[in-house]
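Regression test case RT-17, inverse folding.

Input:
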């Protein structure tokens, strides 16, 4: 127990009703409130509330403002210790050294007036030291269990380093691949996104906040950040209520139902009101409708940005507006806007009870994490956890599951071991550690990362010569915001560029087969990395053309964080394997797939456009007035994508059959069970993702032509069949109606398809009666 007395806690409890301390979802209409399971997952232990309020009763206004202030630890540690000692800083981020974390924690616990421990957060997006595939790659696995295992490893490494909380999972559905942050999220579909959200939260947090070896999950960015105009990062978002509830909210609702302890507000304005100070978002939807009882953090400098956005008059006004709207903790580069909150209370601009509510939620998080009892990390055990070989095996398995075989004309893949004596691995991603890891990686051990070229060398052994050359240098025209962590190498001179290009072509000329390693650099994808042009950057297309002219067998491996305009490559190269940014063991995983040790089974979590002019293009569009002309919306190019949502080939073949529903007619609210048989009709063991899509033919709104409502990834031996089963409940059949301004279930006929991608042809139907 900390320095305050149990007797004092009891007096606080006697004077304040516990029911008034804990936010509940009872303010929401019944149709919007989450299920009892969701509310139970968000329940705050009564003792945590009592302890938090006893502390609040003893705090000065400045100390309260400090508890809702999180600072970037950029600079010398001693520059931050005074603030920690004074209680004006309640949380820090960008500290991963356990010794330094303990140093700060000692100041907070042993030298500050109230001894309140610090909360340490960090961007543990797809691993800390052991790096897993980028989130868009994990989405391509269509395997929530694999994602959960990966984030369990990430949590273990983070907690062993002294980190308590991650700014992940990123759950922004997006349908515009120009948006750079697509690499961090689940893709275009709300149903897939929701399944991945639950898995990520379970992986980070375990069965409860404060579980050993786990950290607090921070679902972000609330909300609709992925719909920024033109795919331009930070730009405004304008969406209807129908789009908000049906498309963008489900992953967040799933994360909250799974118990996420934190939510991060978004940067942009939603319908003209910045998300960081949007009371409808943070209070009406998040807390009242979804029942969220954790704490809300702003994105970096998101509160200060309210001034830049023309919403707040100054930083103190911004802090008051954000807190009043439902925000709690400000993430800021010092000085923080929240430093003005004490004076705002004194001047009457801010109700002290509003500040107390925010402080309470932050303190409860610290209490639930056990930081008052165990504020320090055992630094002697950190390296043992970080170097656990089991973590690398999980990373390899995850990378293998994320691979998507986009095309394989002539079955050039898999390669036959021993058939080639000299292999050329050329292209900018061939031997690049940075680009194997991807963006949002800050403290890896580069020497542990296996690139594509190295992975192939390990696979083929000493008897096969593997040569490599980048051929092309990839550089952003504008420096990345993360240059301080991973600076770009010096730019080649024009003479160097020509010499490297010629060297790559010569290596290809001397080889029996060429593996082209193409894509976009890690710093070309992520925050502040939106692109107007999705073509392969640099001289990569010229490199493809030069290699094609040699007449050698060619396979392309892509490393990237979004769909790119690869139509010229698709026409020139018979086999294309999408590897995303595959992580620490990426080179091993890709090499194993190229040689058939692993059969790719991933599927696209986004529709892949033919060109940037088709964007936005996504599978769950409305039918509109001319469904038979859906592929001819442009007179100069088909409107169909290069590869559809859910697409992914295999080295074997699969067939779907025997589709049935358990009842042809049901009453509103009754479930329907859909079953189908999937058979491996080929000659190799492989994974198939059985995907269920529905369409509601009529109702109180026009419904999308198809919506994903179920999926299962299954492994089948040659000739093996398996029955897959899906249940369509109220949750799958309801939708938000703009006419009713509520969730509705309509009597209607529903079409059902099951297959291997969103073009599934095996169909049936059922009817929901009034």
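Golden output:
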């Amino acid at each position: 127990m900390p320095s305050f007395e149990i007797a004092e806690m009891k007096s606080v409890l006697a004077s304040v009703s516990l029911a008034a301390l804990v936010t509940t979802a009872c303010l929401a209409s019944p149709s919007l409130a989450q299920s009892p399971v969701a509310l139970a997952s968000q329940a705050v232990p009564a003792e945590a509330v009592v302890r938090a309020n006893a502390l609040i009763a003893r705090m000065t206004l400045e100390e309260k403002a400090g508890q809702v202030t999180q600072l970037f630890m950029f600079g010398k540690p001693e520059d931050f210790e005074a603030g920690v000692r004074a209680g004006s800083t309640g949380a820090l981020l960008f500290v991963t050294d356990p010794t330094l974390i303990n140093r700060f924690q000692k100041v907070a616990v042993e030298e500050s007036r109230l001894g309140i421990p610090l909360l340490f957060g960090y961007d543990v997006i797809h691993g800390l030291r052991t790096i897993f595939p980028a989130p868009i790659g994990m989405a391509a696995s269509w395997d929530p269990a694999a994602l959960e295992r990966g984030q369990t490893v990430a949590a273990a490494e983070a907690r062993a380093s002294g980190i308590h909380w991650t700014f992940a999972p990123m759950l922004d559905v997006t349908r515009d691949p120009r948006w750079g942050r697509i690499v961090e999220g689940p893709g275009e579909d709300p149903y897939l996104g929701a399944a991945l959200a639950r898995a990520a939260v379970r992986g980070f947090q375990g069965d409860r906040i404060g579980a050993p070896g786990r950290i607090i999950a921070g679902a972000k960015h609330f909300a609709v950040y992925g719909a920024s105009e033109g795919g331009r990062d930070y730009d405004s978002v304008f969406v209807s209520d129908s789009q908000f509830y049906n498309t963008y909210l489900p992953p967040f609702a799933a994360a909250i139902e799974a118990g996420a302890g934190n939510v991060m507000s978004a940067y942009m304005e939603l319908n003209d009101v910045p998300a960081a100070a949007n009371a409808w978002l943070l209070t009406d939807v998040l807390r009242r409708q979804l029942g969220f009882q954790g704490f809300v953090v702003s994105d970096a400098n998101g509160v200060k940005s309210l001034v830049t956005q023309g919403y707040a008059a100054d930083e103190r006004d911004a802090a008051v507006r954000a807190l009043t709207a439902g925000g709690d903790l400000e993430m800021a580069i010092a000085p923080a806007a929240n430093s003005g909150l004490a004076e705002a209370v004194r001047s009457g601009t801010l109700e002290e009870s509003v500040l107390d509510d925010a402080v309470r939620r932050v303190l409860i998080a610290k209490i639930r994490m056990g930081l008052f009892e165990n504020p320090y990390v055992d630094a002697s055990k950190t390296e043992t956890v970080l170097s656990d070989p089991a973590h690398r095996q999980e990373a390899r398995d995850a990378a293998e599951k994320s691979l998507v075989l986009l095309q394989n004309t002539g079955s050039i893949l898999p390669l036959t071991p021993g058939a080639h004596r000299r292999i050329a691995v050329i292209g900018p991603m061939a031997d690049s550690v940075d680009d194997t890891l991807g963006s949002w990686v800050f403290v890896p051990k580069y020497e542990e990362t296996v690139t594509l070229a190295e992975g192939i060398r390990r696979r083929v052994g000493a008897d096969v010569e593997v040569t490599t050359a980048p051929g092309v240098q990839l550089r952003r025209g504008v420096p990345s915001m993360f240059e301080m962590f991973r600076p770009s190498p010096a730019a080649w001179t024009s003479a160097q560029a020509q010499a490297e290009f010629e060297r790559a072509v010569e290596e290809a000329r001397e080889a029996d087969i060429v593996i082209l390693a193409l894509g976009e650099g890690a710093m070309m994808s992520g925050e502040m990395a939106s692109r107007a042009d999705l073509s392969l950057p640099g001289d990569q297309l010229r490199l493809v053309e030069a290699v094609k002219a040699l007449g050698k067998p060619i396979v392309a491996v892509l490393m990237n964080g979004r769909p790119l305009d690869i139509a010229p490559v698709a026409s020139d190269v018979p086999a294309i394997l999408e590897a995303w940014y595959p992580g620490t063991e990426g080179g091993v995983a890709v090499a194993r797939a190229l040689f058939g040790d692993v059969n790719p089974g991933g599927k696209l979590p986004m529709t892949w456009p033919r060109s940037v002019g088709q964007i936005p293009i996504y599978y769950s569009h409305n039918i509109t007035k001319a469904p038979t002309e859906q592929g001819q919306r442009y007179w100069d190019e088909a409107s169909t994508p290069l590869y559809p949502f859910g697409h992914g080939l295999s080295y074997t073949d699969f067939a779907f059959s025997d589709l049935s529903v358990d009842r042809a007619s049901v009453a509103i609210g009754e479930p329907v069970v859909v079953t189908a048989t999937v058979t491996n009709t080929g000659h190799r063991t492989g994974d198939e993702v059985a995907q269920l899509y529905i369409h509601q033919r009529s109702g109180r709104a026009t419904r999308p032509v198809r919506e994903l409502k179920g999926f299962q990834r299954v492994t089948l031996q040659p000739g093996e069949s398996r029955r897959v089963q899906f249940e369509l409940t109220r949750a799958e059949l309801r939708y938000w109606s703009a006419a009713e301004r509520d969730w509705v279930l309509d009597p209607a006929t529903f079409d059902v398809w099951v297959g291997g991608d969103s073009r599934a042809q095996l169909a049936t139907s059922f009817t929901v009666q009034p």
